[in-house]
């Protein structure tokens, strides 16, 4: 239940703002515009890199800070550049070892810098990420001379990789944070990095109380944020663990559930009452 009016909404992107086939429904765009009119700030909190969020942020009319790469990057995304305000890079030496071992195990790793993303070879994950984000990787066959800061590594389980992902997580568990964004996809960042941590840091800077924050998401990488926020909302298409952790469950992404959640929050603010505890 909402304990006080909401002034900031942290909004996940994939499978929350977007449909499963990566469409942005007009109802969601319109709801974000209504939030701005009601003095409720919407902040994207996404696993996407800044360049993969740019067109979505523009379509939604988001002009303030965004949280990208699962919390490893916070900044302002402009039409021609992204200005980082807070970044937490991974240890480059150990990250290169992680990537090499993931590639050898058949996990087809991709890694993300501030400017773009890279892969050692073509594969299922590279095709999936390019299709989802409408961005192209830089194929980087050797890690030997690579020197840019890395903010996130992405690995995809395949039939060929077997239990390699679990073994990778055990091997590097004390060095990096691992979180699943779907059943076969793992995202790796510097230890302690999360959407929750980035949003908490942002709200402290903005002077926004935690109880005035709502979070809307669908999967494991949203879980800590949904638990932390004053009002946590799970998507109807979200995982069961996210739904159990949330204060309220909205419609699915196919039915513009993010828009329904935003409008419900706006209405509750105006009426100074809590949204009905309906679970879908």
From TrEMBL:
Keywords, alphabetical: Hydrolase
Pfam families named among the record's database cross-references: Hydrolase_3
GO cellular component, as recorded: cytosol
A molecular-function term among this protein's GO annotations: phosphatase activity
PANTHER family tied to this protein: HAD SUPERFAMILY HYDROLASE-LIKE, TYPE 3, PHOSPHOSERINE PHOSPHATASE
Protein name (record): Cof-type HAD-IIB family hydrolase
Organism: Borborobacter arsenicus
